[in-house]
User: Fold this.
Amino acid sequence: MSPIKSDPHPAAPLPDECQTMTDVRKGVDSLDRELVRLLVIRQGYMHAAARIKKTRDAVYDEARIEDVVAKVLTEAKAQGLSADIAEPVWRKLIERCIAHEFDEWDATKGRKTA
Assistant:
């Protein structure tokens, strides 16, 4: 049985309810739209961080990266998400968010990137 308790996209069937690949694709497409919406919000926090951080060196914080990954892995386990999916996805997400934050910091603090 699927660990999903409720469907945030009622037009798409839950995984256990899928009867066809069309059902599966409808569900995946619906979730992808929601993930994009959530990533836009996360990106907004990167913009806020770039605005708030006083120095460019503060953008990359190894301890914070490991803290985020640890929290994600705890939540992934609680929700039934494989750590083999969660950890590499979040590490890549963090990597790209840091790169974006550097770009934003440079843009808002007037520093040009090479």
